[in-house]
Amino acid sequence: MSLDQKQVKHIATLARIRVEDAELPGLVNELNGIMTWIEQLNEVDVTGVEPMAGVQSRALPRRADVINDGGDPEKVLKNAPDATHGFFVVPKVVE
């Protein structure tokens, strides 16, 4: 498949990309090179090859979905600049 300047201009319009007329020949060459590369990839026989997202197939570690209160409120509030009655105190930002 080969693209011409009119098709590239149309693609740029669809992608909402402004392309100056002076830039079109170079862009046509680049896109045609990409299309050639895609055609080469389509020629590769991939029957029996499983699709993959990465080079290692492994499950991600999971943790239990448990609701808790953070364990110890004193430890949580220990690094707070200001705390009162077990809550963080923040400066007023709305008058």
Automatic annotation (TrEMBL):
Presence of keyword ATP-binding: yes
Key words of the record: ATP-binding, Ligase, Nucleotide-binding, Protein biosynthesis
EC numbers, comma separated: 6.3.5.-
InterPro entries: Asp/Glu-ADT_sf_sub_c (IPR036113), GatC (IPR003837)
Any Pfam family hit: GatC
Enzyme class: ligase
Enzymatic reactions: L-aspartyl-tRNA(Asn) + L-glutamine + ATP + H2O = L-asparaginyl-tRNA(Asn) + L-glutamate + ADP + phosphate + 2 H(+); L-glutamyl-tRNA(Gln) + L-glutamine + ATP + H2O = L-glutaminyl-tRNA(Gln) + L-glutamate + ADP + phosphate + H(+)
Function: Allows the formation of correctly charged Asn-tRNA(Asn) or Gln-tRNA(Gln) through the transamidation of misacylated Asp-tRNA(Asn) or Glu-tRNA(Gln) in organisms which lack either or both of asparaginyl-tRNA or glutaminyl-tRNA synthetases. The reaction takes place in the presence of glutamine and ATP through an activated phospho-Asp-tRNA(Asn) or phospho-Glu-tRNA(Gln).
NCBIfam families, A to Z: gatC
HAMAP family: GatC
Family statement: Belongs to the GatC family.
Subunit structure: Heterotrimer of A, B and C subunits.
Name of this protein: Aspartyl/glutamyl-tRNA(Asn/Gln) amidotransferase subunit C
Classification lineage: Bacteria, Pseudomonadati, Pseudomonadota, Alphaproteobacteria, Rhodospirillales
